[in-house]
Structure prediction request, 171 residues.
Amino acid sequence: MERLIATRRELLLAPLLAALPSALAADRAAAAPDPSMTIVKLPNELTWSKPPDFPENSVESANLWSNTSAPGLYYYLVKWHPGYMSAPHWYEEDRYCVVVSGTWWVTSGDKFDPDSTVPAPAGSFVRRVARTPHYDGVKKDGKEPAIIAICGMGPITFHNAEPGTPGWRKL
Prediction:
């Protein structure tokens, strides 16, 4: 009886063990997705740029799909560095934001008061309601930049709630 059990076990394991080398080889030689069907941009392939009139190491963005000045859907990443926030501002359309990494500090209102911001850690969702003032960024004691994925409908216009001031604040 023991020999019969061992034989059954061997019969079950034999095909699995025989297929293992080809499965491992196929994993190493996996074909890339067809770029006409699936577009992949790895982190090192993203192009980050600083907006005009913003200081170095304050904020950067990387377009993923379209851009904010074009009609239709846009999708991009924003990277706020520690010690910088946006000035209070608003947009004509809703914006949908997901914090990818770091902690993004956010609030609503048209008067800049960084102490009124609340933390939105990685994985948080933030919806910016159209035509409502808000500001955000990373506090100066932040350990890393916050990267936020932002999606909405363009074109958009940055409406500074404090006209005549820069679109950013250094903390």
Summary: The chain is about 15% helix and 35% strand. The first strand starts at residue 59 and ends at 65.
